[in-house]
Amino acid sequence: MEIVQIVGFGLIAAVLILVVKEQKPLYAFGIAAFAGISLFLLVIGKIDAVIAVLENLSERAGVPSIYMATILKIIGIAYIAEFGAQIVRDTGQESIAVKIEFAGKVLILVMAVPIISVIVDAVMNLLPTGG
Amino acid sequence: MSMDVSAIFQIAGIGIIVAMIHTVLKQMGKEDMAHWVTLIGFVVVLFMVIRMLNELFQEIKTIFLFQ
């Protein structure tokens, strides 16, 4: 019953933030960031097992490992960007949060370019020549 | 499984104690000292948060980025 622990953890963090916020908002930010990181760390450990299974499956299916690596990297970038943007959004700096998300999207696009070019190559091979 | 509730209580405790010290110093008329106390307390908290953030990013790197 880990979900009970997680919910309890979140509730405790929320109550503490309420207590501290009226005295010093600065420390409320610290607690929020800390709680977010702890919960994230907890869940990341679980994702590890799922990714091992995915890698095993892709290996057996004969998918080139470069595609799998790229997809995992994209997921990692998405996680980090989302996390950072939310922490910054908590502090009230919406504009910086939006820029972090934008940077994440651009980096994901850059990683996806090789895959897109491979797809375009495959489509060009399917097309009849000279038609 | 690193559920350290104590760290969160620690940060909240630092916040409350610093708020108390801030109030006392303000009553004594030492405004500048009070601000320094707040700043140093925040640096301590930020240090804890950043250490944990480093741990998180290392974990993400080893899982997703193959490094």
UniProtKB/TrEMBL annotation, chain A:
Pfam families: SpoIIIAC
Name this protein carries in UniProt: Stage III sporulation protein AD
Segments traversing the membrane: 6-21, 28-54, 66-85, 106-127
Highest taxon listed in the record's lineage: Bacteria
Keywords for this protein: Membrane, Transmembrane, Transmembrane helix
TrEMBL record, chain B:
Stretches of the chain forming a coiled coil according to its record: none
Cross-referenced InterPro entries: Spore_III_AC, Spore_III_AC/AD
Keywords: Membrane, Transmembrane, Transmembrane helix
Residues that span the membrane, as ranges: 7-27, 33-53
Name by which UniProt lists this protein: Stage III sporulation protein AC
Classification lineage: Bacteria, Bacillati, Bacillota, Bacilli, Bacillales
